[in-house]
Amino acid sequence: MASRSEILIVGGGVAGLSLATRLGKSMGKTGKARITLIDKSFSHVWKPMLHCFASGTLSNENDRVNFISQASGHHFEFWPGEVASIDRACREVVLSPLLEADGTVILESRRMKYDTIVIAIGSCANDFGTPGVKEHCLSIDNLVEANAFNEKFRRELLRAFANNSELDIAIVGGGATGVQLAAELHKALEIVGPYNLHAFGKAPPKLHVTLLQSGDRILPAFPESVSAAAQQELEHIGVTVRTGARVAGADSHGFTLKDGSYVPAKLRVWAAGVKAPDVTTAYGGLTINRTGQILVNPNLSSIDDARIFAMGDCSFIQNDPLPATAQVARQQARHLARYLPAWIEHGQEVPSCIFHNKGAIVALGKYNGWAALPGGTVWGGGISHGFSARMAHLMLYRQHQIELFGYYRGMMSFYSDWVETFVRPSVRLD
To answer: Domain named FAD/NAD(P)-binding: which ranges (predicted)?
Structure first.
């Protein structure tokens, strides 16, 4: 009997976890392959909702997927760790040691064999070498960073409350992440208000959020009408939006701009630019572009090695570059889940992955939202806003849950979240 094929999936984000779940059903369950998911975290969250974790308006326990539990129920394996390098000659990956917070070694460096490897490690903010950003700014590229920001946010809110002072926060980057975080922070403070009033007898401190965008408008991936409307909405709720604001440097008190002006901020968030994690430079000499993305063919295989595939934000199709969005990652994961089994079992070539743009949605907390859809009418295409757009944004998240859990468990998760709104605070307080 032929040995099972070893499939390694590196990264448990939108694309990686979806692919592991689907391949587990088609190949893991039947014993045709052993599918192993590798991630340095123990749980998955939907990256487009990280701003909600950062502000505290989502509960970590309810809105994250435990990798061990998901693997157990969907016929794949999970190993915690970070792939430090790839040995293409031996077809092995080298995992970095797994450490506790104090540096104690939990697991030594390990090596794992593969027949096929799919890299889906996502992306992170790009500081473009701006002085002081790494030392003095926070980012929210993953759950650990989002939680770290939330802890600092709550601590500074308490300090401002006790000192009767304002809390200044500056966010660099006017894309969806920065725009949504600015709105969500105001939403969190509005929710906290009644708690402070009843617990301490006075209103919460004033929040002053400044959004810095180097380009001439926020949300550059959306039509200009959406950018203008979103800026107007942000300014209405109290956010200061500064376009054409190029950051020259950061320090422990704020940002210096290219024009010489200074933006003071107790909390500084960098949400500008996109690049692949630096570790791609150690992936067996695979060709990468200037932002670290792995160059792949239209069928998502590496241009250097047919056994290595890359998808989502960390990949770059040379002749047809795609935006670093969850929509692209999901479609690429579905494509590989459909065609990899035939390639692994019978050598049938994986066809090119054709991206179908279904539009984009941005939601500013409870305040407003916009959906820009391809075509010429509102639901067949065009722009919608308000409650329908905000609900569409929420349903994308629920659709992701159903893809991972199945229809009935996904709907039960939806129902459970709804029930908890009646018994738990709607913002993180501790």
So the answer is: 6-333
